[in-house]
Amino acid sequence: MSRVRGAGLSNLIVVTCLLVTVLVVGTRDSSIGLDTIAYVRYYDVVRDCRCLVGRYELGFEFLTLLVALTGAPPTVYLSVVAGLLVWLVWNFQRNLVRIVGDSAVVNWKLRIAVLTLILVSPFFFSASVNVLRHGLS
Q1: Can you tell me the distance from the alpha carbon of 80 to that of 23, in angstroms, rounded to the nearest whole number?
Q2: I need a labelling partner for 80 at 20 to 30 A (CA). Which of 25, 58, 62, 97 fits?
Q3: Residue 3 CB neighbours (<10 A)
Q4: What is the pTM of this model?
Q5: pLDDT score for 21
Q6: Count of other CB atoms within 10 angstroms of residue 50
Q7: What local confidence, expressed as pLDDT, does residue 1 receive?
Q8: Is the Cβ–Cβ distance between 80 and 127 less than 8 Å?
Q9: How far apart are CA 24 and CA 78, in angstroms?
């Protein structure tokens, strides 16, 4: 029973850290990164016209339109995009852990390694929107 409670607490800590990461990415200034301002401007166009613009891949356009129809500010849009990417990474590492083995120590080492390599990397912050956009295409 305490092993299950410990695993739940560990997952809660990791999820909390991931949520903080999503908020940091979503609330960053639009001057950070080369593409951020382009995506913010694109989001503003979609939010104003409430239509598909046809500038990017269809899946990314639909995601943008879905958020734009709520009238949310660009920070919410960037947070949603970052959150979706983090969720995909989380599911990837969970499935990888299931495939690799059943040792709790190995599982947590693998989880930490995957999350560190993908989410702590400076490339995550600069490429998060591009990766998701191309992944939705």
Answers
A1: 9
A2: 97
A3: 8
A4: 0.69
A5: 75
A6: 10
A7: 45
A8: no
A9: 10
At 9-58, the pLDDT tens digits run 667 777 787 788 777 777 777 777 677 888 889 999 999 999 999 888 88
Q: How many CB atoms neighbour CB 104 within 10 A?
A: 13
Place of tokens 């499935």: 95
Neighbour-count burial for 51-62, b at 16+ CB within 10 Å, e otherwise: eeeeebeeebbe
71: tokens are: 């009238």
How many Å apart are CA 81 and CA 30, to the nearest integer? 15
| Tokens 């166009």 -> residue | 45
Which two structure tokens, joined as six digits, stand for 43? 């989001």
Give me the residue label for tokens 């709790």.
Answer: 104
Structure tokens at 44: 């503003």
Amino acid at 111: R
* CB of 77 closer than 8 Å to CB of 41: no
Q: What is the distance between the alpha carbons of residues 124 and 111, in angstroms, rounded to a whole number?
A: 17
Tokens of 19: 């949520």
Give residue-wise pLDDT tens across range 68-110. 999 999 989 988 888 888 788 778 777 777 777 666 666 677 7
